[in-house]
Amino acid sequence: MFFRKAGISHTRYQDERQLWPLPIDRYAVVAVLVLMIAAPFLVDRLYVVSYLLPLIIWSTAALGLNFLMGGAGQIHLGYGAVIGIGAYTSVHMMRAGVPLEISMIGGGVLAAMVGIVFGATALRVKGLYLAMATLAMQYIVDFVIIQFPSISGGTQASLSVPPVTFLGFAVEGDKAPYYVALFICAIVTLFMLNVRRTSLGRALAAVREKDYAASIIGVDPFRYKLLAFWVSSFIGGLMGSVLAVCFYRAISPDQFHLDLSIQLVAMVIVGGLGSVLGVYFGVALILFAPIVLNQLIGAISEQFGLSITNDLRAHLPLMLYGGLIMGFLLIEPLGLAKIYGNIRNYFLVWPFRHSRQ
Questions:
Q1: What is the phi/psi pair of residue 166, to 5°?
Q2: Which member of 89, 114, 207, 316 lies 3.0 to 4.6 Å from 107 by CB, making a disulfide possible if both were Cys?
Q3: At residue 2, does pLDDT exceed 60?
Q4: Quick one: which of 266, 75, 274 has its CA closest to 192?
Q5: Continuous H helices in 43-171
Q6: Do 250 and 69 touch, CB atoms closer than 8 A?
Q7: Residue 114: is its pLDDT beyond 60?
């Protein structure tokens, strides 16, 4: 088997502590990166714009939420509002002539400032009470965006994104927005992979497990909870800017409602709390499972001549999709990342099933 630890002996601590200590992992990462870079030249533009680009953008946004939920153990039901703040801030800055790079940072900073205000409730409450506080943030931001025409232009209005450049390249067409989103995704992914190995990641893990126990060993829960909300909200605001520029090209209030927040929470939980790779699995399942199931039901009905009403045809994929998510969580409550980890660990010691890492 090419996917085993046999024959690999680390003689330095630096070798064992690297992100991908096994050669096969490094080869797989390079192969995926090369495929993602070459995708616009290998597949039809419809697949790039409709499938790959949303996968990249929502995976990056879910990574920001996973930093808070999986890294610090703080629930957030208003992440769609955070993304909306970043999107509207950056679009207004770009319409005022501010470069895209600065507008992205501005959107992230304002989203972080608003997010940290509501995140301060995590210092007094937790669990369902914290969920209600972040849910209130979602409704407050929705109300402000809709009721202030200076922000959104009105309930039914939309703000178009002006022509912009990123690092000297015009963000237009299909390929340039794709590469901008991929570049931001790579940076956020590397940050998430490395932060767990730092003192910040270890402090957040201590707060996640028991905040009062963390305070006993010298970790300040007040500081690290606020820092977790700040970083998570900054990534969400940054991705709001990327979403507006690279995908929507025009933003409206109905794009950042509560259903978006719930969908992002589902992506993180189904993928696996605290797992970077699990985020990609969860996003792929949430985005593509309804599409695949819809096509599968249509093919089966045509193949066997089944008569399915339009109403049933519209709701049956959603029912199967919900059942699929429940099935995954019943099989492995820790998400798709744990299922992948179990399979990977099996092949690492195959055929010696009695071995343990």
A1: -125, 115
A2: 89
A3: no
A4: 274
A5: 45-47, 53-66, 79-95, 100-119, 128-147, 149-152
A6: no
A7: yes
Q: For residue 1, what pLDDT band results from cuts at 50, 70 and 90?
A: very low
* CA-to-CA separations, 319 to 32, 294, 297, 304, 325, in angstroms, rounded: 32, 11, 12, 21, 10
Of 36, 60, 62, the closest CA to residue 48 belongs to 36
- Name the pairing type of β-strands 159-160 and 250-251: antiparallel
Query: Please, what sign has the CA dihedral across residues 272, 273, 275, 279?
Result: positive
Are the C-beta atoms of 247 and 53 separated by less than 8 Å? yes
Residue type, 34: V
pLDDT in tens, 167-209: 888 888 888 999 999 999 999 999 999 998 888 888 988 888 8
Whose CA is closest to 221, among 236, 234, 205? 205
Distance of CA 50 to the CA centre of its chain: 17
How far apart (Å, rounded) are the C-alpha atoms in residues 293 and 41?
Answer: 28
Structure tokens at 20: 């991908």
**50 token code pair:** 């409709």
CA angle, corner 87, sides to 81 and 93, nearest 5?
135
User: For all residues of the chain together, what is the average pLDDT?
Assistant: 85
Length in residues, the chain: 357
Residue 351: is the preceding peptide bond cis (ω within 30°)?
A: yes
**Does 162 score more than 60 pLDDT?**
yes
CB neighbour list of residue 121: distance below 8 Å, 6 or more residues apart: 129, 130, 133, 134
**What residue has token string 């003192």?**
199
Angle between helices 100-119 and 79-95 (to 10 degrees): 150
Q: Are 337 and 272 in contact (CB under 8 A)?
A: yes
pLDDT over 80 (residue 159):
yes
Q: Which pTM does this prediction carry?
A: 0.88
Structure token pair of residue 278 = 């699990």
CA distance 283 to 289: 10
Question: How many whole angstroms separate alpha carbon 61 and alpha carbon 314?
Answer: 28
